[in-house]
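The instructor's notes for this session suggest beginning with a concrete chain rather than abstract definitions. Hand out the sequence below and ask the class to guess, before any prediction is shown, which regions might be ordered.
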Amino acid sequence: MADPVFLITGASSGIGAATARHAAEFGYRVVLAARSTDKLEALASELGGEERALAVRCDVTEWSDQEAMVATTLERFGRIDVSFANAGFGAKRGFLEETVDHWRRMVLTNVLGAALTVRATLPALKDSRGHLLLTGSVAGRRALAGSLNSCTKWAVTAMGEAARLEVDGTGIRVTLIEPGMVNTPFFDSPPTDALEPDDIARAVMYAVGQPPHVDVNEILVRPTAQSS
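After discussion, reveal the predicted structure:
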């Protein structure tokens, strides 16, 4: 397929931005979605401008934004071949930490936001027999003490499998990407010996680059130095 289309939420920095760069190198036209457009527009310009990259403001917790994101993509590029539900953020561990408002925004972004991206892009993915990816976490494989963020990632783990079961027989592939510690804005200070966003982007492109009959359902990627 010439000029396939790769849509990424949370694309303004970290794993999303790194994946956009790798996807562009692989020949994809990219759709970059996030709440703030300044970084998106700069990245879109870097990746080839209007003909190759589209910056779209999208608050993933708002269904109207998700609908508009997909409509704009289809109007501009005509299709969606890969949808990467990547938007999310974390919180300090401890059920007495953070504000209730921070918790609410995190749960809505990490869980509802991912589900809305699945809902919004699924019809186009059925048309293209495309690929759905979700950013989970090693924290979605084992509970972390006092971590509500871990709870949201457990939900994403279940969402990936639930989506895979629903689209069985349609040709759509589903991959859950589960990073360990990554040097992204998620952390206030960069963790020692962490992975880099490029490391995760390469894992994404590995899954996407498999033949159509191969569905890599989960990729768990930890730094060599991460013991748990």
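Then share the key points. The beta strands are 5-9, 29-34, 53-57, 82-85, 131-135, 173-179, 218-221. DSSP finds six helices and seven strands in the chain.
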